[in-house]
Design goal:
By secondary structure, the protein is α+β, with helices and mostly antiparallel strands. About 15% of the residues lie in helices and about 30% in strands.
Length: about 100
């Protein structure tokens, strides 16, 4: 299922160019090119990571989402996801990610 609404005011939102092999989504498989990544906290202590083609209307779930938020918090999770998407290779999100 694609998401057509914005991720919400509490989401961390950044544009990023996906590396070779792009980012893996649950809905449409791999997407590549200029993307926007949103990481939004959920009430249960997890976070959902959404991705879209830059300036598109549809949002897709990054495979592996939602995930538990590590002690570093949502900002650290978001930064780690951006690094993975920049690296490509069918980037996914996993729990407890930290930035290198």
């Amino acid at each position: 299922m694609t998401h057509t609404s914005l991720p919400g005011p509490d989401a961390h939102l950044d544009d990023v160019k996906a590396g070779p092999g792009g980012a893996m989504t649950d809905e449409v498989g791999v997407i590549t090119g200029e993307l926007t990544v949103a990481t939004r906290p959920l009430a249960d202590g997890r976070a959902v990571v959404l991705v879209q083609y830059k300036d598109a209307d549809e949002w897709y779930t990054l495979t592996g989402s939602p995930v538990s938020v590590a002690p570093g918090g949502i900002a650290q999770l978001h930064a780690a996801v951006l690094e993975r998407v920049r690296a490509g290779g069918g980037a996914r999100v996993t729990g407890g990610e930290t930035s290198a």
